[in-house]
UniProtKB/TrEMBL annotation:
Coiled-coil regions, chain positions: none
InterPro entries: Homing_endonucl, LAGLIDADG_dom, LAGLIDADG_Endonuclease
Protein name: Homing endonuclease LAGLIDADG domain-containing protein
GO cellular component, one term: mitochondrion
Residue ranges of every copy of the Homing endonuclease LAGLIDADG domain listed in the record: 79-145, 172-269
GO molecular function terms attached to this record: endonuclease activity
Gene: orf295
Keywords assigned: Mitochondrion
Purpose of the protein: Mitochondrial DNA endonuclease involved in intron homing.
Lineage: Eukaryota, Fungi, Dikarya, Basidiomycota, Agaricomycotina
Mitochondrion in keyword set: yes
Pfam family, one: LAGLIDADG_1
Length: 295
């Protein structure tokens, strides 16, 4: 098994690559990031017998679904421009998107822990529209496209929201790279062995519940409304849902730094599968992984 320190090393390499790419745009968007992750994993034993090498979307169809999910999470179509926001640690992903599309810029936002991919080039906008057309699940981004008359500017018929099985393509990976998070929770409990209860949580926050309802229907879990933030959030806590999540993300990989959090989260899931969480040694393993999980 890959030790926690090695997983942390992978995370550090991703952060370093992101910084290098951010400050040196000539080398930014380097698709060798996946190779770096895979090489480090190979050098340090496997996380499990069934984890495949990290893969990004290969075909235009696959990338289109991934991009559509990313956009429905953190994208925006404005007046002859298109933008996606990223955490600063994911600057490498912003450059990867730029490289796949072939146009655009990656901008650092002053006094914020984020970067923004901005596209104004007409040919680049046409490429994006062709990639994602017919792959959005709700009207929100479609309405932005129509409001700013991208259909007439590019002589395109913008297709209505579609309906597909979320576990059949990269859309959910893109959406999760934008808004998902993985949480390992240990809490005191008198009713559980060793006096602790363990929860593996997969969370997504949204201003509306429409997309969260589709995710709940596919993966299981629950949807809550946070009065204090006036926001909906999806939360998966049971291990049946955890299996569905592992089955999906093992096939359609995350492409942000959240991929590393997923590997840690998945490692705890494997510990539970082997019932090691019922032992003091197993709980200590989980505590170490939990401590190193990125916020």
């Amino acid at each position: 098994m890959l030790e926690n320190s090695n997983i942390s090393l992978v995370h550090s390499v991703i952060k370093l690559l992101g910084k290098i790419q951010f400050w040196n745009e000539q080398s930014a968007g380097n698709s060798d990031i996946s190779d770096e992750i895979n090489n480090l994993i190979q050098e340090n034993d496997h996380i499990s017998d069934h984890v495949f090498k990290h893969r990004k979307p290969e075909t235009e169809e696959e990338f289109g679904y991934y991009l559509a999910g990313l956009i429905e999470g953190d994208g925006y179509f404005g007046d002859y421009r298109f933008e996606i926001a990223f955490h600063k640690e994911d600057a490498f992903l912003a450059y990867y998107i730029k490289k796949r599309i072939g146009y655009g810029s990656v901008l650092k936002l002053k006094n914020k822990n984020s970067v923004r991919y901005v596209l104004r080039h007409s040919e680049g906008l046409r490429i994006v529209l062709n990639l994602v057309n017919g792959k959005f699940l709700t009207n929100k981004k479609i309405n932005q496209i129509l409001t700013h008359k991208f259909d007439s500017k590019f002589n395109l018929t913008i297709l209505p929201p579609t309906n597909f099985d979320l576990i059949s393509n990269h859309w959910l990976a893109g959406f999760s790279d934008a808004d998902g998070s993985f949480v390992i929770s240990l809490a005191n409990s008198k009713s559980h062995m060793l006096g602790l209860s363990l929860r593996l949580e997969f969370k997504i926050k949204q201003k509306t519940s429409e997309l969260l309802e589709l995710i709940k229907k596919t993966l299981g879990g629950n949807i809550y409304f946070l009065e204090s933030e006036q926001i909906f959030y999806y939360n998966s806590t049971n291990f049946k849902s955890a299996k569905n999540i592992v089955d999906y993300f093992d096939n359609f990989h995350l492409n942000s730094s959240k991929y590393i959090n997923y590997l840690k989260w998945r490692k705890v899931y494997k510990i539970v599968q082997r019932k090691e969480h019922l032992t003091v040694e197993g709980i200590e393993k989980i505590r170490k992984i939990q401590k190193n999980l990125r916020d």
